[in-house]
Amino acid sequence: MILVTSATGNIGPPVLFEGLSVEQAREHMGHLPEELVGDMLSTSGRDPGVLDTVREVTGVPARTFRQWARRNIAAFG
């Protein structure tokens, strides 16, 4: 179990992250279509890379998770 704080910049209560094996994740996602589950798990254990899709589609760069969390913290309080 990992305490996650750096991604949000400590702007709220700590979040606990518990990693799952691919098999455990697949079991938890059993209600989803197999193609989607396969895609979601295809990068397990490695960096999926960063795409520029948001900028290409919207014309503005994507926000970081920290930026998103700061803007939306009230929704989780």
Quick summary:
This protein is mostly helical and 77 residues long. The protein contains four helices and two strands.
Instruction: Give the percentage of residues in beta strands.
Output: 5-15%
**Total count of helical runs of at least 4 residues:** 4
Globular, elongated, flat, extended or rod-shaped: what is the shape? extended
Q: Structural class, judged by helices and strands?
A: mainly alpha
Q: What is the helix content?
A: 25-40%
SSE layout and pairing:
Blueprint (H helix, E strand, L loop, with lengths): L1 E3 L10 E3 L4 H7 L5 H8 L11 H6 L6 H8 L5
Antiparallel strand pairs: 1-2
What key phrases describe this protein's structure?
77 residues, mainly alpha, 8% strand, extended
How would you describe this structure to a colleague?
This protein is mainly α. It has one domain (2-76). Helix content is 38%, strand content 8%. It has helices spanning 22-28, 34-41, 53-58, 65-72, and strands at 2-4, 15-17. It has a two-stranded antiparallel ribbon with strand order 1-2. It is extended, with a radius of gyration of 16 Å. The two termini are 23 Å apart. The mean pLDDT is 80.
